[in-house]
Amino acid sequence: MGGCGTTLAFDNMNARPITGSRDWARYDIVLDVAKEAKSICLGILLQGQGEVWLSGVSFEAVNTAVPTTGRGRDGWRMKPANLNFEH
């Protein structure tokens, strides 16, 4: 996050959800961390009943050739859009 709670990058895995029962597996989120970032926030979202477990969470630098999985500041709509529901 940037100053004043500004989100600079985000990935909630909405486009690639984990569904059903699973054995332990590795899942990666790759985001560019902006120079002006003040903090990194991590969380879990569980929709419906069940349990979620985390183990071995880490932050690692990767080569710039590794594609990002979320949206950066250019992918964010910073102002409300379509408020009159025309589109």
Helical content class:
under 10%
Q: Quick one: biggest sheet?
A: 2 strands, antiparallel
State the shape.
Answer: globular
Low-confidence stretches: none
Strand content: under 5%
Average pLDDT taken over every residue: 82
- Report the radius of gyration as a whole number of Å: 16 Å
Q: Span between N and C termini? A: 30 Å
Q: What's the SSE pattern?
A: EE
Structure annotation, total helices: 0
Instruction: Quickly give the structural class.
Output: little secondary structure
- Strand order within the widest sheet? 1-2
- Total count of strands: 2
Please describe what this structure looks like.
The protein has about 90 residues and is low in regular secondary structure. The chain is about 0% helix and about 5% strand. The protein contains no helices and 2 strands. Strands 1-2 form a two-stranded antiparallel ribbon. It is globular and about 40 Å long.
